[in-house]
Batch of 2 targets.
Target 1
Amino acid sequence: MNKTQPSRLIVGIGNAGVSVLDLLSVENPGMRDLLVVNNDTESLSASIVADRLIVPEGDLGDGFLSIDDEFGSSISGASAVLLCGGLGGETASFLLPALAIRSKSAGLPTLACVGMPFSFEGKQKRDLALEALEKLRAVCDGVVVINNDQLSGGTPSSSAVGEAFQLSDRTLIASLLAMRGMLATSGPVKITRSDLHAVLGVPGSVTHFGFGSSHGSNRLHEALERALKSPLLSLPGKGQALREAKMVLLFFRAPKDLSFSEVQLAVAEIERIAGERCLIKVGVQSEGSPESPLELFITASSGGSVQIVAKSNEPKPFSLTATETRRGSQQSIPVAAKADKPLKKSSAKQMQGTLDLESYQRGRFDKSEPTIIGGEDLDVPTFLRKGIKITTPARH
Amino acid sequence: MANDQIFVGLEIGTTKICVIVSEGRSDGTISILGVGETPSRGVRKGEIVDLATVTECVREAILDAEDKTNVEIGNVWVAISGAHLRSFNNRGTLVLPEERQIEPEDLEKVETNAKEVALPPPNIFLHTILQAYHVDGNRNVIDPLTSEGAMLEADFHIVHGIKTRIHNTLRCIESLKLGIEDVVLSSLASAQVVLNQDQKNYGALMIDIGGGTTDYIVYIDGAVKHSGVLAVGGDHITSDISVGLRLPIARAELLKIQEGSAADPSSGEGGTISLQNDPGFMGCEIDRFSLDTIIHLRVREIFELIRNDIESTGEGMLGLIRGVMITGGCSRLRGIASVAEDVLELPVELTRARNVGGATQIFENPQYSTAIGLTKYAKVITKNSTPESMMDRLTASIGDLFRRRSR
């Protein structure tokens, strides 16, 4: 495999993951930092993604161990890892949480965008998906869940099955691009890891995702309208899911001429629908020419108990331990047998959590709407922005 | 209210909610009867973020003011701030069908013309402040109603803001069954008592540095030439200290008040400050140079941003012959005047409400300038308005929104 130094690595796992990354590559020919992992050699050989990891057929636990080193070196230069796949299938349901643990053990921010099976795919698949989702949530910094049943509710019932899967893939791509953008460091308005975790990492919560894009003079209105009409946000009515949301991430991927008033307008509209008690986090990735489309991504979280993690670095529950048992076939990841592997060693280390410097730097304004002037976030202390070193106090 | 000359100013600030009750005097001045006050909760950077909590705080402040002044409060004048407020200058032009004497309706039409500007969709007009009239090219006509001409022009300073955020303030007061006389830009209110007419005529900049925002206003030739709100204030200084010196917010706030200085740290005394142990806090030695550096950089940046903003309007600083007046709670920070002088290159004075009678300890405190200024503003507006024109003015200020909610 080609060992480049990737950043914000997107990993497609299982057949659905490979399919999504293929589509992503076709639509974004210049996009790098993609990796596909599967135990289906046919699917991998047909993939147009250059970097591939083949999991040997047979026991998935053994298979995982056989790619562990290669996966470790693939993520070694990454600044963050985005995992993607469809839950419910045996491969993705097993490998997604396992690779998430491996990524977290390497100290990398790890997010997952996963699709839940359609109800016609059967109860067993759904149960397996729910179990895998629970594990993913315990490990990842954030998980975006695309509920395919809800998604298909937005298309006419006479739609071809293929169309429903295609819509699912496209929604996964949009959520991947949104997460990738949110993890970008270019700004000018950043969404911090703690923001992502607060919205996407809440146990028992339901994630709603919508996106829209548009060009031209009325681009903001059109993009916002489309995002609010996204099936995952709109059912049973326009922006309905937002009304129940406790937290919302509003992310703009926009040309450089995105105006402050456009951002304000979108925030005001979300605030109007979601209510004042909903905490809204805004991120802007401003790049490209004025001809580029304005893309707007809305990720809302409802239910569960919203936790603000920025102020306290409470360790997250960590359900995948040394021996991980998979439903049905009772296959296990024999982590304990590989004492020299970082997977085992660092699972305890991960419990400590890491100080989120970005949130810490905004001090008491961590949860406030940023004050951006001249591209600088004025809530960040002036001395930090000017790079002036301050002598820390000596404790008694 | 029983007495038409009793005015109540309400400021919903980031650190405190303050109610000033004043009585208008026949000589045009005001006398403060008392102040109601409560620490503010649910306000960030001058804007309401938790309506229910803020409403409760306002209720407490109103009750406190009623207790202290024995005045039953029914209507209030409200100050508003926040980074969503924007301003610009615009000229309205009215070509008359023939040369004739200017009539009151012409003044209304020219104001309407000046307001025919496409605001961002969520915004509404807050103020349309007259700067000057021009009749047939004759500039700065003081009373156009006594002039004849074929073309009337008027310059206005227009302030606008996001409707929903202004709406929040109105909802809060409305839920307490209080009437709203008017909503006034904070800096405009403060300037009523901080600047005298001479300073307004010859040109002055007033800066009100509060907890969550820094409000500023420029007067030249007796009129408002520019206004702005920077969503940075004393809270940012506290937060910077907390981050830089790794102290809890409450400790950082105390350190800022007791030991902080905005002056250039290189000319400071140096040394260390000893913070004693408290339950839950391990004492430490603070390097004074570090503390002063943190504060100095933030304060300097605030003045630099104000200067850049004023210069971007094309007015420059040269017209500000009477210099800079700094007020607000944060103006009490040591060394702040020297930083302002250095950055703005103008004479600077730390000031508070003036030409006000009543309880000395209230008007001598610069943190009450806005609330006191509201009552002075109320006095001026009431004096200049007949009941009919008052309603017109209110209608002009924030339109239907206000009309629907004020009565």
Target 2
Amino acid sequence: MRRTRVLFEGRGEPLGWHDPDENRAWVRDNKSRALVDKRTTVAEAVAAYVQDGAFIAVGGFGHVRVPMALVYEIVRQRKQGLALAGKTAVHDCDILVGSGCVTRVEAAYAFGHELRGLSAASRRKVESGACRVVAENSNAGFQWRFLAAMMGVSFIPTRHMLGTETLQESSAVVIEDPFTGKPIALLPACQPDVALLHVPRADMYGNCQIDGILVEDLELSRAARRVIVTTERIVDPETIRQRPWLTSIPFHVVDAVVEVPHGAHPCNMPYLYFFDEEHIAEWRAMSRSEEGAQDYFEKYVFGVPDYAAYLERAGGEARMEALRSLEAMES
Amino acid sequence: MGEVAYTKTELLVTVAASLLEDGRSAILGTGLPLLAGLLAQKTHAPNLLLIFEAGGYGAQVPQLPISVGDSRTFFRANQASSMHDVMSSGQAGHIDYGFLGAAQIDCYGNLNTTVLGPHALPQVRLPGSGGAADIGSFAWKTIVIMQQDERRFARKLDFLTTAGYLDGPGARERAGLPVGTGPYRVITQLGLYDFDPATARMRLCAVHPGVTVEEALKASGFELLTAPEPNETTAPTAEQVRIMRQLDPTGLILPH
């Protein structure tokens, strides 16, 4: 008989892990398979599904295809004690940690703005102890945690991070691979309480099509217990049915759908609009101090009733047209 | 041929590009690695497959991406895929070169991009692994580009984010990492380093034009080995400089 043994246990918190049978039962009892109209508003979706203390994961990657309307709404509703999947979380992470809504992070990539530099607001929270990193991970590791959840198994074996302190501070367990005899890392499945996603088009039932890279939205949408989707456009279900092979997120995993044009601003929406570098720079400049960060939230979140008003304040139609032109490389 | 005017950054990009063989694949970060990949593609390695970790395969990159997921990373690409796809192909052996940067490196090429100071309450919180621990695990040859000084070339890392050769020859394999992978070269503002096969320790194999071997060896918190005959890196040609400036017209990476 083959034998195996545990060689090492990471000390990170396995955020979002549930026993697969417990999760199956939860899915059976809570996820509707009915083809029903799931359209709602950003405010209602966040109020209904993002509870204080929830573990949330945001779709897209870095500053790309990020559901910023939902992110700003979480701040507006002053959600507290949230945990965040830092899966190359950039502007979303900075806003959510900087605002104080998120106080725990599993960090693959967080507290940075990629090429633009580090994130002052969220770093301040971590360096002062106001936000805790409860586990380290890597980008591959995070999406494989979602993949395990999508598959309905309790872990997934991988060959990365071995020998590092990233692994030591992660929630992985290392065992002797029963087939090869070599050490192999087992990453626990991850079922976030809520996933927030932004897509270019979806129908009212929640069937979503994504143009460009999927990043890990496919896995995350199946892994999370609740899924809120914002979409640039709600399309007729017939549009979806004509080319169903383009549907990467099916209706039965989606709980709420909201039409939000420019819903990823100031992030990049592939084929539609480019990064708003001026806006990102404004946040980065203002957030160098705690007071400045608060001024930003007053100006762009608390000082406006909703996302449409935020977009107006961020430059309105003229600005959006300029970002469309940049994305299309017209200049 | 007369003297070609070039910047230090352009030299680093040229040295990095020269390491990339045609017909191979490279997973790229934005910034210098991307420029190196594009420069290689436009000179000696037209069949270099450029891969981005968020899902872009074989883009015809029209302008420098800001994010490794932005729409330029899959512009006219062969495939706009997913991170699972890219990372799995890395794990399965399809990725030849990986580029990484770091805040600290040690003599075995282990990297820190996570914290300065204690992990629980750091003096400086850095972004973390991102894709680094993945690329450093899976790429056949990992190339590191970073600034070199006594603190960054650290005797002991504040945090070991990404595995180099861990604590010596064979340690990666003993830890369970894929066989035959690991750090290949380190490029800094002073020179080019490889790893001594007998000890898996970093050693100076070339200095940049105008830099002495002593200067390079001195700017380190650990003892650097020296290759039997360290030589000099090759300065960019006028053509290479022209291509680089065309790729980065606004000076995003290459301050003009």
